[in-house]
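Customer escalation, tier 2.

The customer says the design service returned an amino acid string that "doesn't look like it belongs to this structure." They asked us to rerun it and document both sides in this ticket. The original C-alpha coordinates are below, unchanged.
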Protein backbone atom coordinates (compact mmCIF):
# COMPACT_ATOMS: atom_id res chain seq x y z
CA UNK A 1 0.00 0.00 0.00
CA UNK A 2 2.85 2.35 0.86
CA UNK A 3 4.44 1.53 -2.47
CA UNK A 4 1.28 2.63 -4.35
CA UNK A 5 1.18 5.92 -2.43
CA UNK A 6 4.81 6.57 -3.25
CA UNK A 7 4.21 5.74 -6.92
CA UNK A 8 1.20 8.10 -7.08
CA UNK A 9 3.29 10.84 -5.51
CA UNK A 10 6.07 10.31 -8.06
CA UNK A 11 3.55 10.33 -10.91
CA UNK A 12 2.09 13.59 -9.60
CA UNK A 13 5.56 15.18 -9.48
CA UNK A 14 6.19 14.01 -13.05
CA UNK A 15 2.91 15.59 -14.22
CA UNK A 16 3.83 18.88 -12.53
CA UNK A 17 7.32 18.85 -14.11
CA UNK A 18 5.84 18.02 -17.52
CA UNK A 19 3.39 20.91 -17.23
CA UNK A 20 6.11 23.37 -16.14
CA UNK A 21 8.37 22.15 -18.94
CA UNK A 22 5.64 22.43 -21.59
CA UNK A 23 4.35 25.82 -20.38
CA UNK A 24 7.82 27.36 -20.14
CA UNK A 25 8.66 26.05 -23.60
CA UNK A 26 5.46 27.41 -25.11
CA UNK A 27 5.81 30.84 -23.51
CA UNK A 28 9.47 31.32 -24.35
CA UNK A 29 9.69 29.46 -27.67
CA UNK A 30 10.47 32.52 -29.79
CA UNK A 31 13.17 33.71 -27.38
CA UNK A 32 14.80 30.27 -27.28
CA UNK A 33 14.68 30.23 -31.08
CA UNK A 34 16.50 33.57 -31.39
CA UNK A 35 19.05 32.66 -28.71
CA UNK A 36 19.83 29.30 -30.29
CA UNK A 37 20.14 30.58 -33.87
CA UNK A 38 22.20 33.64 -32.90
CA UNK A 39 24.38 31.50 -30.60
CA UNK A 40 24.98 28.98 -33.37
CA UNK A 41 25.98 31.72 -35.81
CA UNK A 42 28.23 33.37 -33.21
CA UNK A 43 29.96 30.05 -32.67
CA UNK A 44 30.76 29.96 -36.38
CA UNK A 45 31.77 33.62 -36.76
CA UNK A 46 35.51 33.03 -37.17
CA UNK A 47 34.86 30.21 -39.65
CA UNK A 48 32.50 32.18 -41.89
CA UNK A 49 35.11 33.31 -44.42
CA UNK A 50 34.68 36.89 -43.28
CA UNK A 51 30.89 37.02 -43.65
CA UNK A 52 29.91 37.19 -39.97
CA UNK A 53 33.06 38.94 -38.77
CA UNK A 54 35.75 40.37 -41.05
CA UNK A 55 39.07 38.54 -40.95
CA UNK A 56 41.85 40.36 -39.14
CA UNK A 57 44.31 41.70 -41.69
CA UNK A 58 48.09 41.99 -41.30
CA UNK A 59 49.89 45.30 -41.20
CA UNK A 60 53.51 46.03 -42.04
CA UNK A 61 55.05 45.93 -38.56
CA UNK A 62 54.38 44.81 -35.01
CA UNK A 63 56.79 47.42 -33.62
CA UNK A 64 54.54 49.93 -31.82
CA UNK A 65 57.28 52.61 -32.01
CA UNK A 66 56.76 52.68 -35.77
CA UNK A 67 52.98 53.04 -35.55
CA UNK A 68 51.13 56.26 -36.24
CA UNK A 69 49.51 58.06 -33.28
CA UNK A 70 46.02 56.78 -32.45
CA UNK A 71 44.42 60.17 -33.21
CA UNK A 72 45.85 60.06 -36.75
CA UNK A 73 44.58 56.50 -37.24
CA UNK A 74 41.20 57.57 -35.87
CA UNK A 75 40.97 60.41 -38.39
CA UNK A 76 41.82 58.04 -41.25
CA UNK A 77 39.19 55.53 -40.08
CA UNK A 78 36.44 58.18 -39.78
CA UNK A 79 37.29 59.68 -43.16
CA UNK A 80 37.25 56.20 -44.71
CA UNK A 81 33.83 55.48 -43.18
CA UNK A 82 32.36 58.70 -44.56
CA UNK A 83 34.10 58.62 -47.96
CA UNK A 84 33.93 54.89 -48.79
CA UNK A 85 30.85 53.65 -46.92
CA UNK A 86 28.38 56.51 -46.29
CA UNK A 87 28.64 60.15 -45.28
CA UNK A 88 25.38 59.72 -43.34
CA UNK A 89 26.78 57.25 -40.79
CA UNK A 90 27.83 58.33 -37.32
CA UNK A 91 31.58 58.32 -36.74
CA UNK A 92 31.13 57.54 -33.04
CA UNK A 93 33.57 54.81 -32.05
CA UNK A 94 32.38 51.77 -30.09
CA UNK A 95 35.89 50.43 -29.58
CA UNK A 96 39.38 50.41 -30.97
CA UNK A 97 40.92 46.96 -31.21
CA UNK A 98 44.69 47.15 -31.55
CA UNK A 99 46.21 43.92 -32.81
CA UNK A 100 49.90 44.40 -32.12
CA UNK A 101 50.75 40.84 -33.20
CA UNK A 102 49.09 41.50 -36.56
CA UNK A 103 50.28 45.09 -36.99
CA UNK A 104 46.72 46.31 -37.48
CA UNK A 105 44.07 48.40 -35.77
CA UNK A 106 40.30 47.89 -35.99
CA UNK A 107 37.98 50.86 -35.51
CA UNK A 108 34.49 49.60 -34.71
CA UNK A 109 31.67 52.13 -35.07
CA UNK A 110 28.63 52.31 -32.77
CA UNK A 111 25.66 52.66 -35.08
CA UNK A 112 26.55 50.96 -38.30
CA UNK A 113 28.22 47.67 -37.33
CA UNK A 114 31.10 48.64 -39.62
CA UNK A 115 34.75 48.24 -38.88
CA UNK A 116 37.69 49.84 -40.62
CA UNK A 117 41.01 47.99 -40.32
CA UNK A 118 44.16 50.02 -40.77
CA UNK A 119 47.84 49.26 -40.94
CA UNK A 120 49.13 50.60 -37.61
CA UNK A 121 52.34 51.96 -39.13
CA UNK A 122 51.19 53.40 -42.46
CA UNK A 123 47.50 54.10 -41.89
CA UNK A 124 46.70 52.22 -45.09
CA UNK A 125 43.14 50.87 -45.18
CA UNK A 126 43.42 47.09 -44.98
CA UNK A 127 39.72 46.25 -44.79
CA UNK A 128 36.27 47.79 -44.63
CA UNK A 129 33.78 45.29 -43.31
CA UNK A 130 30.36 44.79 -41.80
CA UNK A 131 30.46 43.21 -38.32
CA UNK A 132 27.35 41.05 -38.46
CA UNK A 133 28.61 39.37 -35.28
CA UNK A 134 27.92 42.56 -33.28
CA UNK A 135 24.32 42.57 -34.53
CA UNK A 136 23.99 38.86 -33.65
CA UNK A 137 25.41 39.51 -30.16
CA UNK A 138 22.83 42.26 -29.65
CA UNK A 139 20.06 39.83 -30.60
CA UNK A 140 21.56 37.05 -28.49
CA UNK A 141 21.75 39.07 -25.25
CA UNK A 142 18.63 41.21 -25.78
CA UNK A 143 20.52 44.50 -25.97
CA UNK A 144 18.94 45.19 -29.37
CA UNK A 145 15.66 45.90 -27.54
CA UNK A 146 17.50 48.12 -25.05
CA UNK A 147 19.05 50.08 -27.90
CA UNK A 148 15.66 50.43 -29.60
CA UNK A 149 13.82 51.52 -26.44
CA UNK A 150 16.72 53.43 -24.87
CA UNK A 151 16.31 51.64 -21.53
CA UNK A 152 20.00 51.74 -20.56
CA UNK A 153 20.50 48.00 -20.11
CA UNK A 154 17.42 47.17 -18.03
CA UNK A 155 15.67 45.12 -20.70
CA UNK A 156 18.91 43.17 -21.29
CA UNK A 157 19.19 42.49 -17.55
CA UNK A 158 15.60 41.23 -17.27
CA UNK A 159 15.86 39.27 -20.54
CA UNK A 160 19.14 37.59 -19.50
CA UNK A 161 17.75 36.77 -16.06
CA UNK A 162 14.48 35.31 -17.37
CA UNK A 163 16.21 33.29 -20.06
CA UNK A 164 18.90 32.02 -17.66
CA UNK A 165 16.35 30.93 -15.05
CA UNK A 166 14.18 29.39 -17.79
CA UNK A 167 17.10 27.38 -19.12
CA UNK A 168 17.80 26.17 -15.59
CA UNK A 169 14.12 25.17 -15.19
CA UNK A 170 14.23 23.40 -18.57
CA UNK A 171 17.35 21.51 -17.54
CA UNK A 172 15.92 20.38 -14.20
CA UNK A 173 12.46 19.46 -15.50
CA UNK A 174 13.91 17.83 -18.63
CA UNK A 175 16.24 15.70 -16.53
CA UNK A 176 13.43 14.70 -14.23
CA UNK A 177 11.15 13.85 -17.17
CA UNK A 178 13.88 11.50 -18.36
CA UNK A 179 14.96 10.11 -14.97
CA UNK A 180 11.59 10.02 -13.14
CA UNK A 181 10.01 7.22 -15.23
CA UNK A 182 13.19 5.14 -14.96
CA UNK A 183 13.07 5.54 -11.19
CA UNK A 184 9.38 4.60 -11.11
CA UNK A 185 9.97 1.45 -13.21
CA UNK A 186 12.87 0.44 -11.00
CA UNK A 187 10.75 0.96 -7.84
CA UNK A 188 7.85 -1.09 -9.27
CA UNK A 189 10.20 -4.05 -9.94
CA UNK A 190 11.43 -4.16 -6.35
Amino acid sequence: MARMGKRKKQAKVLRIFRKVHRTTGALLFIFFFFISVSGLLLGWKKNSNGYIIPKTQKGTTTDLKKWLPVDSLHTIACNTLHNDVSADLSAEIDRIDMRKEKGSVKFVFVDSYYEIQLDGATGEVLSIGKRRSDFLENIHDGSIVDDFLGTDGYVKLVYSSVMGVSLLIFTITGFWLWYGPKRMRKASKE
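Tier 2 assessment: The sequence is consistent with the input. The first strand starts at residue 93 and ends at 99. Residues 2-43 form the longest helix (42 residues). Sent an explanation to the customer and offered a walkthrough call.
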